[in-house]
Amino acid sequence: MIISQWWLFLRMFYINEDLKQMLESNKDSAKLDAMKRIVGMMAKGKNASELFPAVVKNVASKNIEIKKLVYVYLVRYAEEQQDLALLSISTFQRALKDPNQLIRASALRVLSSIRVPIIVPIMMLAIKEAAADLSPYVRKNAAHAIQKLYSLDPEQKEMLIEVIEKLLKDKSTLVAGSVVMAFEEVCPDRIDLIHKNYRKLCNLLVDVEEWGQVVIIHMLTRYARTQFVSPWKEDDGVEDNEKNFYESDDEEKEKTEKRKKPYTMDPDHRLLIRNTKPLLQSRNAAVVMAVAQLFWHLSPKSEASIISKSLVRLLRSNREVQYIVLQNIATMSIQRKGMFEPYLKSFYVRSTDPTMIKTLKLEILTNLANEANISTLLREFQTYVKSQDKQFAAATIQTIGRCATNISEITDACLNGLVCLLSNRDEIVVAESVVVIKKLLQMQPAQHGEIIKHMAKLLDSITVPVARASILWLIGENCERVPKIAPDVLRRMAKSFTSEDDLVKLQILNLGAKLYLTNSKQTKLLTQYILNLGKYDQNYDIRDRTRFIRQLIVPNEKSGALSKYAKKILLAQKPAPLLESPFKDRDHFQLGTLSHTLNTKATGYLELSNWPEVAPDPAVRNVEVIELAKEWTPAGKTKKENPSKKFYSESEEEDGSSDSNSDSESESGSESGEQSEEGDSSDDSSEDSSSDSGSGSESELENKRTAKKNAKNKGRSDSEDGEKENEKSKTSESSSAESSSVEESSSDSESESESASKPESRKVTKEKEKTRQDRNPVTKDVSLLDLDDFNPVSTPVALPTPALSPSLIADLEGLNLSASSSVINVSTPVFVPMKTHVMLHRMSGKGLAAHYYFPRQPCIFGDKMISVQITLNNTADRKIENIHIGEKKLPTGMQMHVFNPIESLEPEGSITVSVGIDFCDSTQTASFQLCTKDDCFNVSIQPPVGELLLPVAMSEKDFKKEQGMLTGMNETSTIIIAAPQNFTPTVILQKVVNVANVGVVPSGQDSIYRFAAKTVHSGSLMLVTVELKEGSTAQLIINTEKTVIGSVLLRELKPVLSQG
């Protein structure tokens, strides 16, 4: 043994020496190989701390791969070797400025792993810089570092809260989970930080990584319990029919009005429940459990039942997951049996289940037992009693006893079955049966004298102390009903008193005392003998009990008045034991937490608060967005430039402002339903809307024309200029009136959660538009599809605010309010493929055929929607009537604007209709029903990834600038091999625009071709580069924040560019 240990020590010594030499080598390949071996040792759990000095020397290596592995090592051992790690602080600080995001993040991780108070200011500065980093991965690591710094120095709490507040506003799904975890660790009581970010977190939840989802859901559960009223009031409201004696009629009327007031769920409360519901299908058990506890604690009781199916699905997981899930189901099944009754068979015990799982399943089966299913369960329990697992068999007997107490109809049957078990060969089964029978007999002792006699005979064979003590207690309690048996049992127990267990000795003393009081003639001497034995017993508890009983039952001069009541004390009627579930008291802990599992409050547990009686002001969750534009408005700019005259006359300014106000009202009215459904949409859309409103195509044309006319016609009178500008304003107003009317028609068919005030706002808008059109006759028809830069302004989440007037738009044109305003300009599509896709075959549609294609036109139904043209053909010999779209089965977040119903389609007839679908930047299928008067057909539309884009016009300089910001994890690339003739400019352009709706970026190099687009839903840039290499190879590079879409587009472009 000693030799083998010595050999192992020598082997590790030589391995370490070999690695040290490799780390000190001048070759990067040797260093890289050494670091890979060291990280492999760490992964296997081997101690590599002795190599710290040799590894830390390579922290400044220029090789990125070596540097990454060195940082991985330092994160693990920096806390153990703090002095050596401190020597490299300057290197870590330099690495925080490294262009590679992985190096910056790793440097921050190492810095936060050095647990030395002296570097707290350096860590604080690094965290603040990382929180403002362009890379979401670095910002995520900054959130992780916040928790480490707080545990090292809690005095930095206020400064860390400022960083957390900044990171909570982050739009990246990569950061959301980490910053909420930091919030929970540092300042879980600062609910005010969540108000403005609540809706954003709800909407981002589906896209956050799994462990981030768990943290966010638990935090939002606590938040909701403080901000919304209870949805259970309607269920729990118990009518109080009794009237107080002094209560007036007015007071009673007020109470009844309060009771009758219907419960209406807050839209933000509904948003949380709706956005977490899809996560019940998550592959991660922790996410499903988190959503289940949220529904349990927050949703109306009628909606909570949907979690049962998902929880039962988790029972197919490993035993650890089963254990936690079953514990939570056991707690739920006590209060709401109906949730899990349909899945009763899922809780039947399998032979392969471990004992802990079997016991929990028994607990749940007991909770679900009722008159309807008890016969089935009892047959199941009979099988369990025969199990080889004795602990499980004993638990089954306890379960039978609980069922017998809960359901009075089967009490006698269970009792008879337990008596039969008394003849079982297994001592543990018999002992547990005795204990349970004792509890059952306490409920109706007068009826079961024969059972007590039968159990008295078992004293010779049963050796388990608890069972023997239970039999003696039963005989003592019923000694007057079995007057012949009880003294004989006492005689036999007196013989074996000294060898009995302490628990049995106590019951022998009690039996002797009871018989002394009821049958002193036969048992007086026997009781005194037992008391003398107990007086000198080794256990002090038995000696104390002996002295107490002697003074109580044997009267003498010293005994007080208590001995007169000895019989009433010892033979008092005992209350029947209440057999309750051990999970009954766990419901005050939040489900799915460690405290619930342990049934005790664990460190760091945050209690759920009670529902407030009155909900706090929901306006705190509104996010003002357009206010930023107002702050940046240069108030006196026009006056300074041209103090002699205004850009518009006063009358025109008044008209323009009133028109803009009416436009804003119509838009807010038409989109209020979308606000209530979507909650707090991402800030990107609001920023884009503000920038688009400042750079609309119509306003730009007006400003250019008026500027030219002012230059040409300087000598003309002001009245002529006013007339011409009046004409232009009329045309622009007519086009805006058309666009607002289109928005109204689209909002008419919006989802059902629109507010009640919506119809009123529509009426007001229509009246205003009517008067406007009467006042300004249309001089020129402007088609919405003719506009290249068609971007309707999306209403922000905040309360409706007036739109900017034309004069302010002109002033704001020169100010780049957002970084994207000067870069992202939607252009016309370069190429429109006419490829059609089959939506409904004529055979499946009973004569109705449907095809669809993507026209690559701006959608008139919404700026986040994609236009889809559907061609319907009637191939039958009869007329098809009432063609319309029925039930929509869309994924979460996806929206669809349907076409108006078609009254009839003649045989051999054809019609093309247009629909708008918001695919939420994903290639998920939009499923719905295409219905006729007689039938409904399930159809679906799946977009190619290239159709999720809008072409963008930008300069080469802007392209390179944006590409430089989208590197690292936001960049995907591949090598393409093809014949040289396939790499001509015409062929590359044709192939790329055929696959994706992208715009061509002018390039100063013949070997590089650039294309730019943005996603329709979120407006994220998609930059495509084809760079020709030597020979017949080329490199395809895609830069985008939407990495999933980027990788899918890469996979589609690669084979197209490779083939001839």
From TrEMBL:
Membrane found in the keyword field: yes
Biased composition (Acidic residues): 650-690
GO cellular component: AP-3 adaptor complex; clathrin adaptor complex; clathrin-coated vesicle membrane; Golgi apparatus
Single biological process term from Gene Ontology: intracellular protein transport
Record's protein name: AP-3 complex subunit beta
Family according to the record: Belongs to the adaptor complexes large subunit family.
PANTHER family linked: ADAPTOR COMPLEX SUBUNIT BETA FAMILY MEMBER
Pfam annotation, one family: AP3B1_C_2
Cellular compartment(s): Cytoplasmic vesicle, Clathrin-coated vesicle membrane; Golgi apparatus
InterPro entries to which the protein is assigned, alphabetical: AP3_beta, AP3B1/2_C, AP3B1_Ser, AP3B_C, AP_beta, ARM-like, ARM-type_fold, B-adaptin_app_sub_C
Ranges of Low complexity composition bias in the record: 732-744
Species of the source: Trichechus manatus latirostris (Florida manatee)
Alphabetically ordered keywords of this record: Cytoplasmic vesicle, Golgi apparatus, Membrane, Phosphoprotein, Protein transport, Transport
Disordered, as annotated region: 234-261, 635-780
Record-linked SMART domains: AP3B1_C, B2-adapt-app_C
